[in-house]
């Protein structure tokens, strides 16, 4: 069974001085950073309801 992608070629790399990364690793790192920053910036689900309940003194 043949592979979906041709793997018989040299890897594509990104070189910054002493840092040598494959393009696939750079893509994964960028995606991880995006998810990390979204997790920091986006509010938790239900946060508005909890804040409203806390201000009104009601129990959840």
Characterize the structure shown.
The chain is α+β, with helices and mostly antiparallel strands and 60 residues long. Helices cover 48% and strands 13% of the residues. It is built from two helices and two strands; from the N terminus they run E-E-H-H. It has a two-stranded antiparallel ribbon. The longest helix is centred in the middle third of the chain and has 19 residues. The model has no long low-confidence stretch (mean pLDDT 84).
Let me know the average pLDDT.
84
SSE topology string? EEHH
How many helical elements?
A: 2
Question: Which overall shape is indicated by the principal axes computed on the Cα atoms?
Answer: elongated
Protein structure class: alpha+beta
Largest sheet: 2 strands, antiparallel
Q: Helicity, in percent?
A: 40-55%
Unreliable stretches covering 5 or more consecutive residues? none
According to DSSP, the number of beta strands is 2
Biggest sheet: strands side by side, in what order? 1-2
**End-to-end Cα distance:** 57 Å
Rounded radius of gyration (Å):
22 Å
The percentage of residues in β strands lies in 5-15%
